[in-house]
Amino acid sequence: MNTSPALSVASGVLGVALRTVVLTVASYGLIWLIDAVAPTADANIGAGLMAFAAVMGVTFFWAIWDACRNRWWVSAIVWACTAALFAVVSNVVTNWTDGERALTDLVTFRPDLDFFMAALVIAPAVVGIPLGIWRRPFARAPRLTT
Predict the structure, then answer these.
(1) What is the C-alpha separation between 72 and 92, in angstroms, rounded?
(2) What is the CB neighbour count within 10 angstroms for residue 66?
(3) Phi and psi (nearest 5°) for 11?
């Protein structure tokens, strides 16, 4: 099936946006849920670590699924763009939850946080994409009957 390049780009942009929203909701939603269930007066390190694990797990399995369906370079571009956008969005959400409300404060570049959040997406995608490519022939193989 031939599709127009504009349609392919639009679906890629929507795919990046969807992945970013899912990762953001998974990570910050999990932190909110853990804080609501077991509130502490101190910093809740466990909630943050579980959110990091959730981001990495969702990315890993979604990258495998993407690589089974798409060419490897399409999956790589989508996940690289998702990592960059997720780093920016997580920076804005973190600044918002810290009490910053001015636009210039919300979009402040924080290299330590931005690169770390991007790495949480890139690392599992780099592992998941080759696994999805490797799994592709098995996913399309006919079922054997006994």
Answers:
(1) 30
(2) 22
(3) -70, -30
Alpha-helical regions (H) of 38-140: 45-69, 72-97, 103-106, 111-139
Beta carbons within 8 Å of 97's beta carbon, 6+ residues apart: 28
What's the CA gap between 69 and 136, in Å, rounded? 8
Amino acid 135: pLDDT: 80
Are 66 and 132 a contacting pair, CB within 8 Å?
Answer: yes
Residues of the chain with pLDDT under 50: none
Q: Where are the domains of the chain?
A: 5-136
Distance of alpha carbon 74 from alpha carbon 70, whole angstroms: 6
pTM: 0.81
